[in-house]
Design a protein that fits this description.
Length: 236
């Protein structure tokens, strides 16, 4: 076998190194050159239940977004005026009774735990990102259905910016978004995510999930006892 001269072999190795550097770059793995600061990783918000006792934490969170536009809301005509301190200084029951959609639920009064009809404790949370908390009220009925309303203060008046209904309702915040999960008639779960659009809370995602069916046993013997499933590759 004919050997290449030592000078030719060295030149070929240098050429291969030059090509590899041109293809892979001279930086560290991942495309960052030495000394380049690594971009900060922003923490993603996690669901925070407004009423933990009404929330099943085994459920998930929706993803993809869709849009839904509705007419702008009108202020409640007979609601109390909002003082400079904000909605936190307003009697929540006075707001509920001024809202014709929520007033029928006020007769049962406030409840502190699930299992009976009435108004859940009022919650104040910032859903618009302006630093001024909104008022969130939910009511449970004897049939298992619930009604939810979000109220916002604007120019000293109270505006209902979201109204929703559903069965076995669980409500969470996801950052400044509101996640409403309810049960459907076909045994699935509906997860709707609302976001402030400058006018009202609108739908940004609406997902329906079905529970996973339990895995059926492989079979039973003559006495009705379950049989073991054969190992992969074994004859059945």
């Amino acid at each position: 076998m004919t050997r290449l001269p030592r000078r030719t072999t060295t030149a070929a190795a240098v050429c291969c190194l030059a090509v590899a550097a041109a293809v892979g770059g001279c930086g560290a793995p991942g495309g960052l050159a030495e000394g380049t600061p690594v971009p900060a990783v922003s923490a993603q918000p996690t669901p925070e239940p407004l009423w933990p006792a009404w929330t099943d934490r085994s459920r998930g969170t929706p993803g993809a977004a869709v849009s839904d536009r509705q007419p702008p809301p009108a202020p409640l005509p007979h609601a109390p005026a909002v003082p400079p301190e904000g909605l936190g200084a307003v009697d929540a029951m006075a707001v509920v009774t001024a809202d014709k959609r929520m007033k029928p639920y006020a007769a049962k009064g406030w409840i502190q735990a699930p299992g009976r009809p009435g108004l859940r404790p009022a919650v104040h949370v910032d859903l618009t990102g302006d630093g001024r908390p909104e008022l969130v009220v939910a009511a449970d009925t004897e049939s298992g259905r619930s009604a939810l309303t979000v109220y916002r203060a604007q120019d000293g008046r109270i505006h209902p910016v979201l109204f929703a209904m559903g069965t076995r309702m669980a409500v969470e915040t996801l950052g400044t978004d509101l996640l409403v999960r309810t049960a459907t008639s076909d045994g699935a779960e509906s997860a709707v995510r609302y976001r402030w659009d400058g006018v009202r809370m609108t739908v940004v995602s609406d997902e329906k999930r079905y529970p996973k069916a339990p895995r059926a046993p492989f079979g039973t013997d003559e006495e009705g006892l379950p049989l073991r499933e054969p190992a992969p590759g074994a004859s059945r």
